[in-house]
Specification:
Length: 398
């Protein structure tokens, strides 16, 4: 292992997306992460498409850079095995319903009696307490209940979800940050006790809504949908070019507005009192967006991009994934790169983000088959013989 988190050891008991994503980010940065799955069935994310030859491609990304074992915590033997493993780890990640680990005999008191400095990340839809604590939740549920879905979509249309469960990814990011904060405390104060982190995915999604709660509390304003038009700056929308492509425009500063005006040959707009500042431009956003939309619609994509690049404007093409993969900037930085894969030799996936100059990291391998590292963990780590492992497998413990 290499990277800034080299030496950090993480036991990942979580399933599907948010919790495992938090652990995967730590693995990307060099942490040694061991993922635990149910024997025989594995993590439900193994059933998420797209598939190639019956193998989930999403699975390969979402649990990359981890060691994989099978273990049933609900069995006495499985419970004993996880207790033997715990002293090796600094962090435990789980996303069971609140109280589930307690019922299986792994209360935080038991966990801390085995590993006193253990950082425990508990990932749930709504948190460890409150009236919704026991509700099941998926990304669409907490995206909707945190207000994100309500403000997404056309002004007169239905609320919209993104084409990817962004709430899960956001939750995973907050989970990783929370773990690192707790680990910093441990590093700064070696005698500090363990930590329990209560991550509500609904609250994580709400957190990125930033000023919407204070806007409602102070002004009584409920923010509504505005489609692709930015409510905070103008001109800012999605426009179609003459040859049928789509571009997006943004930029709230006066300097950028001037550049964007020059890009479309309308320097006369710069000193127009209606557009003198971002506040004024927002009040007249329909007029501005119509001007820029008409100009884009009268020109082909290549000319539009060339004009804005020459003027240092802030317009970009809206890429499909095949275009993302071929973009010169992303290609130059190897933002998508081949990773070793047990099934297909190599597969393409995103590079580690962000990049570290003095302690660089890279993807080591994609997520593999169920129980890939059973022999290593149970044989080499815990010293169990092949016969003992076979017996545990027969009993359904591993």
């Amino acid at each position: 292992m290499s990277g800034p988190l080299e030496g950090l050891r993480v036991l990942d008991l979580a399933t599907v997306i948010a919790g495992p994503f938090a652990a995967t980010l730590l693995a990307d940065y060099g942490a040694d992460v061991l993922k635990v799955e149910m024997p025989g069935v594995g993590d439900g994310a193994r059933n998420f498409g797209p598939f190639r030859d019956g193998k989930s491609l999403w699975w390969k990304v979402i649990n990359r850079n981890k060691k994989l074992i099978t273990l049933d915590l609900r069995t006495p033997e499985g419970l004993e095995l996880v207790k033997q493993l715990l002293p090796r780890f600094d962090v435990l990640v789980e996303n069971f319903r609140p109280g589930t680990l307690d019922r299986w005999g792994l209360t935080k008191e038991v966990l801390w009696s085995i590993q006193p400095k253990l950082v425990i990340l508990r990932t749930t839809g709504f948190g460890q307490d409150g009236p919704y604590r026991d509700r099941p939740a998926f990304a669409r549920v907490f995206e909707a209940m945190a207000g994100l879905t309500y403000i997404t979509g056309e002004r007169d249309g239905e609320p919209m979800h993104a084409g990817y469960p962004v709430g899960d990814a956001l939750g995973g990011l907050f989970g990783a940050v929370g773990i690192l904060a707790a680990c910093w405390k441990r590093a700064a104060h070696p005698d500090a006790p363990g930590e329990e982190i209560d991550l509500s995915l609904c609250e994580a999604t709400l957190r990125i809504m930033d000023f919407l709660p204070i806007e409602y509390e102070q002004l009584g304003v409920v923010r509504e949908r505005s489609g692709n038009r930015n409510q905070y700056s103008a001109p800012s929308a999605v426009y179609k070019t003459r040859d049928g492509h789509w571009v997006t425009l943004s930029g709230s500063t006066n300097a950028i507005f001037k550049n964007n005006c020059r890009a479309i040959g309308r320097a006369d707009l710069i000193d127009d009192p209606r557009f003198i500042g971002n506040g004024e431009r927002c009040l007249h956003s329909d007029e501005l967006n119509n001007i820029f939309s008409d100009w884009c619609l009268a020109n082909d994509l290549e000319f539009v991009l060339t004009s804005f690049n020459a003027a240092q404007g802030t317009l970009a093409p809206i890429y499909s994934m095949d275009q993302v993969a071929k973009d010169p900037q992303l290609v130059a930085r190897k933002a998508i790169a081949p990773v070793a894969d047990v099934d297909f030799g190599t597969v393409a996936m995103q590079a580690v983000v962000p990049r570290f100059a003095t302690d660089p990291v890279e993807n080591r391998w994609s997520a593999g088959a169920l129980g890939t590292d059973n022999a290593t963990v149970y044989g080499e780590w815990l010293g169990l013989s092949e016969q003992q492992q076979s017996e545990l497998k027969r009993r359904g413990a591993i």
